[in-house]
Structures are given as structure tokens and as C-alpha cells.
């Protein structure tokens, strides 16, 4: 059983639904999960934890408002994430040149702080007719051996 911190960046709710679907899947796999809808770095355990980041991209490649503060904290603080594992799920739209920049950039930021990426980010293109909740839940289920 792993302890998993789910960190959400969402403006319109889509990434939040994806995060909640992943949380349900992870709970069913008997992991211990906590959802952070207004993430604050000092409130989120990191030692020997898994961080799952679900974020959309807004503006022109920008972070959703609710996760910007967390990203600023992470950027500014010296934090050693070498015992933390991470996985990132992005929601975006491929009609933007800045497709899924927030997910790509936070993933790079986490790695720059020493975080151990479990798998390359899953990037959903919302231009396509997809069900990101279902796809993300299946993707998370497939990672079960790497989560424990
Ligand atoms: C004003 C606006 C700007 C957007 N900018 C981008 C962008 O730069 N890159 C991208 O990949 N998607 C962009 N999108 C698409 C959103 O990321 C996508 O609709 C996503 O599903 C929204 O998720 P959310 O409901 O969690 O905020 C933008 C959407 C809106 C409405």
C-alpha cells in the first residue's frame, strides 16, 4: 500500500474529475490517498510519498490559478524530493501551440527537485472525443506494480 498525494490544477473542473476518478481507483487498490484542490506545499507530505499531479493548461500555456501558488512555492524553495515518486496527468487542447504545457512543465519541475518519475506523463487532448476519467483510471490501474 502506498501513500499518494493527489495534486490538482483545474479551472473548469475537468482535471478535478480526473483526479477524483483516479482517487477512487487507487482507493479500490487499497492505497491511501489525499486530494489537494488548493495545494499548499507545506501541507503535502513528500518523504516516501507518491505525488500524482492532474492539471489542465490555461491562458497561453499557463497553470490554472489554483495550482500557481504551489508551483511558485516549489520553484522558490529548496526541497529534496529524492524519496518522492511522481506521475503527471495533463488535460489540454492540441489546437494550442502550448499543448499541455502546465503538465509538461510541472513534471520537469518535479524532476529538477529530485522526484522520481514513475512513467512519462499521460497527456489528454480534449479536442478528441475521449473520456479522460476512464482513460486515466485505466492508466493508473496499469501502474499498480510500480505504485507499491
Ligand atoms: C481560455 C483557455 C485557454 C486554454 N489554453 C490552453 C493551452 O494553452 N494549452 C492547452 O493544451 N490547452 C489549453 N486550454 C484547454 C484546456 O486545458 C482544456 O479545456 C481542459 O480540459 C480544461 O481542464 P479544466 O476543466 O481542468 O480546467 C485552454 C482552455 C481555455 C478555456
TrEMBL record:
Q: Which InterPro entries match?
A: Flavodoxin/NO_synth, Flavoprotein-like_sf
Cofactor(s) it depends on: FMN
* NCBIfam families with a match to the protein in the record: PRK09004.1
Q: Keywords of this protein's UniProt record, alphabetized?
A: Flavoprotein, FMN
Domain Flavodoxin-like residues, every copy: 4-144
What's a Pfam family this protein contains?
Flavodoxin_1
Originating species:
Thalassotalea loyana
Q: What is this protein called?
A: Sulfite reductase
